[in-house]
Amino acid sequence: MSELPKTGREWHLTARPHGWPKPEDFALREAEIPAPGPGQILVRNTHMSVDPYMRGRMNDTKSYVPPFQLDQPMEGGAVGEVVASNADDIAVGDHVLHGLGWREYAVLDARHAAKVDPGLAPLPAYLGVLGMPGLTAYAGLLEVASFKEGDAVFVSGAAGAVGSQVGQIAKLKGASRVIGSAGSDEKVRLLVEEYGFDAAFNYKNGPVEEQLKAAAPDGIDVYFDNVGGDHLEAALSTLNVHGRAALCGMIAQYNATEPTPAPRNLALVIGKRLRLQGVLVRDHAALQPEFVREVSGWIRSGELQYRETVVEGIDHAVDAFLGMLRGENVGKMIVSFGD
């Protein structure tokens, strides 16, 4: 057995961002790696996830998840190889998914790790299409938005890890029409030509409401919201009576320093009898086996496509995070430390 590492690098939040985070709000530091105690494992991380929700954890505000602590390692999804184990059900050489990303090595209780099979799918897929973003899309569309065959669906942020899967699942489940918005003409082409959306538009090319109504002349029944702001306002105007909106993210206002004005038409919720419901993936853990079975089958058959944007090296993790906030990724943004 090779000697275990004594130290490893980890990213710390050093200042709480005001508005857009800056590289100087973070520091990559060397830290000692403790030996795993009883029931614990030591994991060499090979890939980590950067996700929009992490921006909220950088604020010192009460939320559904505690804020990152200053001058402490940040957290997030990661996959890696077990290099030491004091747990009965996880062995050295196993690959696991866990929540201690942003670092090269992680020591954690084995009960907080889930074994994954690199033979079933590449390891990064467990951070995206078969991971938290994928389950968010699956549960948000099917359970929260109560999708049914024949619904017309609009997805904002549709070229991202969650949105791209929402649109494809809706098509596979019999949607009458699927519309997506994205931030570039290249992403719009991807939505239509590769992901099979019926229509898509670049929200930078004109008012969102005008473009949505042109793409959905008969209205929409379901809105999956990753953006908020003017997208939510446009969706409220376009939703049919008894329409449903699954509110997953509002990236348009994550870095805002002043309150955002939209949506200004919430009164429509009353007359149209709309249902707006937030999505937190942890509420839908019971769907995990069904989700993995169905989605992995679609991947094997080629019915569901996915993209990843991979940034190499822990040194560039903050660059990847900031790039994701700016919409530079296509599909899931992954940081690879090397296998």
CATH topology (level 3) name of the largest domain: Quinone Oxidoreductase, Chain A, domain 1
- What is the β-strand count? 15
The Rg value, from CA coordinates, equals 20 Å
Distance between the termini: 18 Å
* Number of helical elements: 9
The helix-and-strand class reads: alpha/beta
Number of domains: 2
Question: How would you concisely characterize the structure shown here?
Answer:
25% of the residues lie in helices and 25% in strands.
Structure description:
There is one protein chain. The protein is globular, with a radius of gyration of 20 Å. It contains 9 helices and 15 strands. The chain has 2 domains: 7-128 and 307-336, Medium-chain alcohol dehydrogenases, catalytic domain (Quinone Oxidoreductase, Chain A, domain 1, Alpha-Beta Complex); 132-282, Rossmann fold, CATH 3.40.50.720. It has helices at 53-57, 132-144, 161-172, 185-193, 208-215, 229-238, 268-271, 288-301, 317-325; strands at 7-13, 26-32, 40-49, 78-85, 95-98, 105-109, 114-115, 152-155, 177-182, 199-202, 220-225, 239-247, 275-278, 308-312, 332-336. Helix 2 (132-144) crosses helix 3 (161-172), helix 2 crosses helix 8 and helix 5 (208-215) runs parallel beside helix 6 (229-238). The model has no long low-confidence stretch (mean pLDDT 94). With 339 residues, it is α/β, with parallel strands linked by helices. The strands form 3 sheets. Strands 3, 4, 5, 6, 7, 14 and 15 form a 7-stranded mixed beta sheet that branches. 25% of the residues lie in helices and 25% in strands. Strand 8, helix 3 and strand 9 form a beta-alpha-beta unit. It starts with 6 loop residues before the first strand and ends with a strand.
